[in-house]
Write a structure and sequence with these properties.
Blueprint (H helix, E strand, L loop, with lengths): L1 E10 L2 E6 L5 E5 L6 H13 L18 E10 L2 E12 L2 E8 L2 E3 L10 E4 L11 H15 L3 H23 L9 H36 L5 E6 L5 H7 L1 H7 L10 E6 L2 E2 H4 L2 H23 L4 E5 L7 H11 L5 E5 L7 H5 L2 E6 L2 E4 L2
Parallel strand pairs: 3-13, 3-14, 8-12, 12-13
Antiparallel strand pairs: 1-2, 1-4, 4-5, 5-6, 6-7, 9-10, 10-11, 14-15
């Protein structure tokens, strides 16, 4: 998997950008606030169809016009393809248009065309943050390697919107509980599909993460378990009705899933030090890269956003070991200090300043 060319127009602080990354390691160096993260965000959008960090798509549109555009030439196996994502501002919203080789694609049909593993500083809180962050970790991985998963996640959002709206209307006396039946059935069906995909992925991920973690942490045991919906989901949905009516929202389903991470049998979130938690995160991200490669049959593009400076020597070495295994890597940093001299010598190095990128040397 390779990004051959990237063009940005009015994306965040990039008014115009046209770069051709190298096939191996690409290092982008610049001060904070110059556009390094915006660059990786654009690359990640080519794989995920939406931004992994923006709350509203309007945030992605820069100041020089009422729209933005990301265009890329990618290589996947023996195929070369062109992907574009355009945002056109309409009032308080931005309309997104996605094309692959000139043909329109829906957002949930794009993932899997181009694959990345993204690791940025926010991920270092994967253990100590709430379950929403860990669900996002699973979703960003699975939309790229599990056929139909992105479409199923979109179905879940629609089911929850409809069911929650009905719950509020019933609680207000505007309908009977029998109107929920079709959405209860749909909730159970879509939840089972999502839970099955997540469960398979975590079973595959867990031993790889444990092995990577043990290599960094001197044999300390890492255990990763999937915490999914109740086994008898239909019964649980029925039993939760009174609580759901009271709250006006759905209390049972995969939107409450979590990952349980244990270190030597203890909850990492509660008992792990910051260093132990970060080691576990590095193990999980290395496992994610291996799972994507195994499922897809080729290495994903590895995106590292200034995380090396946040890691100590052992964790940095473990991550750089993944970089050394080949494949395209796009990594950002405030300075060249965290990188071994031999890695810099065989990398394409770029400088980033105020939305402009220049190659070094």
């Amino acid at each position: 998997m390779r990004l051959r060319r990237l063009r940005l127009r009015n994306h965040r602080n990039y008014s115009e950008l046209d770069i051709t990354p190298g096939p191996d390691v690409n290092v982008f160096i610049g001060a904070n606030g110059q556009g390094k993260t915006n660059l990786l965000e654009a690359v990640a959008m080519l794989a995920l169809s939406s931004s992994p960090r923006a709350r509203r798509e309007l945030e992605l549109v820069g100041p020089v016009g009422p729209g933005s555009r990301i265009e890329a030439e990618i290589e996947a196996g023996s195929l070369r393809r062109e992907i574009s994502i355009a945002l056109d501002v309409e009032g308080e919203r931005a309309r997104r248009t996605i094309e692959v080789d000139g043909a329109r694609r829906r957002a949930f049909d794009l993932p899997g065309t181009f694959r990345v593993v993204l690791f940025w500083p926010d991920d270092l809180g994967l253990i100590k943050s709430g379950p929403e962050i860990r669900r996002r970790f699973l979703n960003q991985m699975l939309v790229q390697v599990e056929p139909g998963y992105a479409r199923t996640i979109a179905r879940l959002r629609r089911v929850l919107e409809q069911r929650n709206s009905l719950l509020k209307r019933i609680a207000a006396g505007e309908g009977g509980e029998d109107t929920l039946e079709v959405w209860n059935q749909e909730l159970v069906q879509v939840s089972m599909e999502i839970a099955a995909a997540r469960s398979r992925a975590v079973r595959e991920l867990a031993p790889v993460a444990a092995r990577a973690h043990a290599g960094i942490a001197g044999g300390e045991g890492l255990q990763v378990d999937y915490v999914g919906p109740p086994e008898n989901l239909a019964e649980a949905v029925n039993n939760s009705l009174s609580e759901d009516l009271r709250r006006g929202s759905t209390s049972v389903g995969p939107h409450h899933d979590d990952l349980r991470v244990l270190l030597d049998g203890h909850e990492a979130r509660a008992y792990g030090s910051q260093g132990q938690q970060r080691t576990a995160v590095v193990g999980l991200k290395l496992a994610e890269a291996e799972l994507v490669e195994r499922r897809a049959g080729e290495r994903p593009v590895l995106l590292l956003d200034d995380v090396l400076s946040e890691l100590d020597g052992e964790r940095r070495a473990a991550l750089l070991g993944q970089v050394a295994q080949g494949g395209q890597v796009i990594v950002t940093s405030v300075e060249a200090g965290p990188f071994p001299a031999d890695l810099i010598a065989r990398s394409m190095v770029w400088t980033v300043s105020d939305g402009r990128i220049q190659p070094c040397g």
